[in-house]
Backbone:
């Protein structure tokens, strides 16, 4: 009989990288389905082309060697879907393909593949097309257009390296005014028109030019966080920080600044907070660091939206947060067991089964060291009764 | 901190919940027959190696001392069987190296009763006498660490102990020997607890048991009420949440008292001494008769065993004999683990003996291992699972990346590598299949060697 020697532990948990990534993809499926329902054929084509481009690029670089991972780990699928959801539905498909290629090539493969990337690949791709095709990325179309399941939005089918045709004519043909193609954020920024928070949340009413439904993303994200495939701290910190900053500014000057709910549910903040900022490789691993990282992104988002020339700020906020991640991690290393304040002062946590010292012998008899005087909480401790 | 853990009010943060796989939780402890030959390694515990006081050809009776020591941090050994000493010299040891051992051939006709003992009256004995009796019994921690029990129960001069904590968590999957001992030998356990309380002059003893063993708690509580009021003080049995590694003494004290033992400190700094239930139950049996430790309860389990169970095994019984008896089909067994699956050591040979600190023998087949073998190893995706599960609050992700770059000094100085007690939670949860704790073991070893070299 031959036996093998291995080093402990000899059992392993069920969770693998593939399982995590697959769950993220599945949780995005309802969002994608509703997005296609909103925008029809163009949205479907955009999702397929961008994801396909991401997968093809990933496969190419893996075959070139030098990096681990493969398309079978589903991480490139996530990048593709998120990228497609973050660009306008009528974005020319060839530009979408470029975005997907750049996302994987510059955002991921350049750094060494899965796990090594510094910036969220989907946002790298989006930042690239934002700089390269500024008009196309700002051209949204109204949702729930009649006949959206039979025809493409004309800009989708632009030929490679060609300027997409203007959609204003197409909109007039469909009896929409020119303003219908602007996002709620752009409308607020440039025209001072404010959309209601409940309309934004479901994006069901009218023909608003919005991205994927924030409510659906919230539900899917909460599912993912409850299964612990995503960290709950980051979205909470981002939304909390963005909401708080927006509320503070709103309270100071309600005429100039929109209400905080508009800030939270407009644009890509929910998608960014739930799915993009929580990208594991580019967010801190330390629990305290996650709070700092989220708070930073939330704050930056509101500042960019209010004070810059751009209507949307989530993308740059997250990219800046990604860049700050190594630094945040460095200053928020976890406190090891036995080195915390709790240990230093011999303080007892709430809900313990037993008092630290038996009630019938005094602390001094027990040989306990009297804790150093503390200025703030220096209350005499009552001996607790045995239950 | 996991969000749900917080709301559940779990005792210590982090940790993992591996499948418990306690196959033998409801089977009674059985006795293994005496093997034809036992091998007693001289070093079975932490501390100095005792020296043999028998020669080849000498006849020994069961329970007779065969190795003695003068060093405080060491224990004597007793003959596990009546028979003839066949050989004193090197034999394969558990750790893979050959170690000094005493081989005794069992006398086929002997009844194998304990014939040797130094009965003493301990009812009025002082703390020092009890400690001496414990030392003479050769007792070490039966939970796995094998630290000499008398040394553990000795209270340093400047310190004072008020609480004896008895560790009955047994958080390792598969192992049930402590569980069965608590259920079946609760009265012995109580006697052992009372001796330990007198040795340490503790006024309170608390048995901490994971809440997946309610029958053990019930048995101990029944024994406590049978014993009535004891002069030593109060004895309680308490349930603590089931979570790995609850059996680590720091985690247990956190669960019971809500305190963190300061890093580098011992429980005695809080006036507490922690001991394992198996150890104290064995003491309760041995001390009144003044006998030595010659056998222990071992869980023989795993998917590769036909008759899993908790067996009373004479110390020094070769692994091969135990497995033959428990029905481990030789062809299928791929890996034999001494201890539990999370921290146990893989046996290199079937000729190694059962030692004092061995709580379980786990047999895994090839099929059980292929699932883990086929997993692909990815780079760290920084999912933070390991940070969320490290009971010591370290950052295994960062440590793992540093270990890959061989920055061992930095790991020790800035990232508290020394606090790691190698529970294996990080490797268990890692979705990228990175051998984190394995790397930390190497790093700690290198740091130890460096410290010695200086």
Residues:
């Amino acid at each position: 009989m031959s036996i093998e020697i291995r080093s402990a532990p000899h059992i392993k948990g069920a969770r693998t990288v593939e399982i995590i990534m697959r769950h993220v993809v599945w949780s995005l499926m309802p969002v994608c389905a509703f997005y296609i329902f909103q925008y029809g054929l163009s949205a479907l084509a955009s999702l397929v082309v961008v994801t396909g481009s991401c997968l093809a690029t990933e496969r190419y670089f893996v075959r070139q060697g030098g990096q681990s991972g493969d398309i079978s780990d589903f991480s490139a699928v996530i990048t593709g879907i998120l990228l497609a959801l973050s660009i306008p539905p009528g974005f020319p498909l060839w530009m979408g393909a470029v975005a997907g290629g750049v996302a994987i090539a510059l955002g991921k493969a350049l750094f060494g593949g899965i796990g090594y990337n510094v910036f969220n690949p989907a946002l790298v791709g989006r930042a690239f097309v934002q700089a390269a095709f500024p008009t196309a990325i700002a051209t949204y179309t109204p949702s729930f257009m009649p006949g959206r399941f039979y025809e493409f939005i004309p800009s989708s089918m632009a030929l490679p390296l060609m300027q997409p045709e203007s959609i204003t004519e197409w909109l007039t043909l469909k009896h929409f005014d020119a303003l219908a193609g602007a996002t709620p954020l752009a409308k607020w920024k440039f025209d001072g028109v404010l959309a209601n928070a409940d309309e934004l949340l479901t994006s069901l009413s009218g023909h608003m030019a919005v991205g994927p439904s924030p409510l659906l993303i919230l539900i899917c994200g909460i599912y993912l966080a409850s299964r612990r495939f995503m960290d709950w701290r980051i979205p909470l910190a981002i939304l909390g920080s963005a909401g708080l900053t927006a509320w503070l500014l709103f309270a100071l000057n309600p005429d100039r600044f929109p209400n905080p709910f508009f800030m939270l549910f407009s644009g890509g903040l929910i998608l960014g907070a739930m799915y993009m900022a929580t990208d594991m490789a580019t967010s801190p691993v330390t629990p305290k660091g996650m709070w700092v990282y989220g708070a930073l992104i939330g704050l930056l988002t509101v500042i960019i939206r209010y004070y810059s020339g751009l209507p949307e700020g989530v993308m740059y906020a997250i990219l800046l947060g990604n860049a700050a991640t190594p630094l945040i991690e460095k200053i928020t290393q976890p406190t090891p067991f036995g080195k915390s304040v709790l240990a230093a002062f011999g303080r007892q946590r709430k809900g313990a089964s037993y008092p630290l010292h038996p009630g019938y012998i005094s602390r001094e008899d027990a040989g306990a060291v009297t804790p150093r005087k503390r200025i703030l909480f220096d209350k005499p401790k009552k001996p607790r009764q045995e239950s | 901190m996991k969000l749900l853990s917080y709301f559940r009010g779990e005792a210590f943060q982090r940790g993992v919940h591996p499948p418990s796989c306690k196959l033998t939780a409801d089977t009674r402890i059985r006795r293994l027959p005496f093997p034809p030959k036992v091998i007693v390694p001289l070093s079975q515990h932490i501390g100095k190696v005792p020296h043999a006081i028998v020669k080849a050809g000498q006849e020994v009776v069961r329970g007779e001392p065969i190795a003695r020591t003068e060093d405080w941090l060491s224990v004597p050994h007793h003959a596990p069987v009546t028979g003839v000493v066949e050989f004193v010299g090197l034999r394969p040891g558990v750790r893979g190296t050959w170690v000094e051992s005493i081989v005794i051939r069992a006398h086929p006709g002997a009844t194998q009763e304990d014939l040797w003992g130094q009965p003493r009256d301990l009812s009025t004995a002082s703390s020092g006498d009890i400690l001496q009796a414990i030392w003479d019994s050769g007792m070490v921690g039966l939970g796995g660490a094998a630290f000499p029990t008398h040394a553990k129960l000795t209270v340093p001069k400047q310190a004072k102990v008020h609480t004896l904590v008895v560790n009955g968590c047994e958080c390792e999957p598969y192992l049930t020997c402590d569980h069965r001992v608590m259920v079946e030998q609760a009265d012995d356990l109580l006697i052992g607890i009372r001796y330990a309380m007198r040795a340490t002059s503790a006024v309170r003893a608390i048995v901490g048991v994971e809440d997946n063993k309610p029958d053990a708690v019930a048995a101990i509580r029944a024994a406590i009420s049978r014993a009535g009021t004891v002069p030593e003080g109060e004895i309680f049995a308490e349930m603590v949440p089931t979570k790995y590694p609850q059996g680590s003494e720091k985690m247990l004290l956190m669960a019971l008292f809500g305190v963190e033992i300061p890093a580098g400190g011992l429980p005695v700094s809080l006036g507490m001494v922690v001991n394992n239930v198996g150890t104290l139950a064995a003491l309760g049996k041995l001390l009144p008769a003044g006998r030595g430790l010659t056998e222990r309860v071992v869980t023989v389990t795993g998917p590769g065993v036909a008759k899993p169970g908790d067996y009373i095994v004479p110390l020094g019984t070769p692994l091969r004999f135990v497995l033959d008896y428990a029905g481990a089909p030789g062809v299928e067994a791929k890996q034999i683990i001494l201890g539990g699956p999370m921290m146990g050591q893989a046996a290199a040979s079937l000729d190694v003996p059962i030692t004092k600190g061995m709580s379980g023998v786990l047999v895994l087949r090839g099929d059980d291992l292929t699932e883990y073998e086929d997993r692909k190893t990815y780079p760290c995706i920084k999912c933070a699972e390991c940070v969320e599960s490290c009971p010591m609050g370290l950052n295994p992700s960062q440590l793992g990346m540093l270990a890959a770059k061989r920055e061992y000094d930095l790991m020790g100085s800035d990232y508290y590598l020394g606090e790691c007690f190698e529970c294996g939670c990080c490797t268990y949860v890692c979705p990228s299949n990175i051998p984190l704790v394995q790397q930390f073991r190497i790093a700690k070893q290198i740091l130890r060697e460096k410290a010695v070299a200086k």
Q: What stands out?
A: Chain A has a mean pLDDT of 84. Chain A has 16 helices and no strands. The CA atoms of residues 30 and 216 of chain A lie 7 Å apart. Chain A has two domains: 17-162, 183-332.
